[in-house]
């Protein structure tokens, strides 16, 4: 076990942690970035083959670097995102330590933190004055408790493990969850000709394009991605909802679950229980579809109001609304996997936080960091890259730069104040010794 000290330790080498590093490096603040694997590995390792961004390419901005390709209103594929990030990493040289996992982080009584590092060569101890946690908001995939009691012949994977239809055994597939990943994986399997059964959750949806522009471009112009979380319409309940489902595939389009049903996809309400080959669903499908469509049309109304306020009506296509193309005849509440030929399940019901390695009183009852723009009440402990850390743009490419700059400035200011105090103390000491010598 070896020991060392650095003023700032950034835990996590994804785009958020490296963005903080970019600003610290520019200011000449000594620091280290500790990455358990390799930089931005998650983009290559946890996205499916046909993954695309759901936000337009022009949203992609990082410190000193922005998308400048030929399709700013398009949607980069997984491989294009990996390539774009690789280009960013060529523009600077962060003090990065790959394959270095932080197993514990604890505050020291005298101030600062002690980090225990697990490396390929053993264990190390590092101390620092500032610790920036950039490990992502929700790293642990969620599976229901009853998953283990299902028939062992059924292949079960989490959405982060899904790559393509061919990795699953022949037969029908049940996708559970309709957040962004679940809805897009269901679409991917559907387009590959698989019989898809989809357990529909409470996620809302949004139109891809409206009145001649991408809806997210309209929302950006309306300032919604810049509005601080406490000021966001709908308050805490609104910001804790699952993100709206939509896709950037094939140039971008709506995800319409009702249309999928017309084309043969089988839809159900929320999956509530299961054992062996039998599953139970809540009778919530009709309500979930109606609510998602209501949100869809509500967003269109908000855009219409903005267009009216800005006097843009004559320069854009007329207003429209979504009307349903399918209604469930009855709510199916029980399903026999074997009878339906379902051989695999893709769980897309989200992730949970896991900060058990941080021994500090900085978390609420749900294990989420208590922070204000990433700054906690624990002196020197900060977070970056969290969804809704400051705005709707936080946790996305659109907001990472701003959040990282704010935290880096906070650290730089503290570093400069400490340096000034130390210089003042040295000068006072020098004057004292000179006076004694005289």
UniProtKB/TrEMBL annotation:
Cited Pfam families: Pyr_redox_3
A Gene Ontology molecular function term of the record: flavin adenine dinucleotide binding
UniProt keyword list: Oxidoreductase
Keyword Ligase (UniProt): no
UniProt keyword ATP-binding present: no
InterPro entries: Auxin_biosynth/cation_transpt, CHP04046_FMN-dependent, FAD/NAD-bd_sf
SUPFAM superfamilies: FAD/NAD(P)-binding domain (SSF51905)
Protein name as annotated: MSMEG_0569 family flavin-dependent oxidoreductase
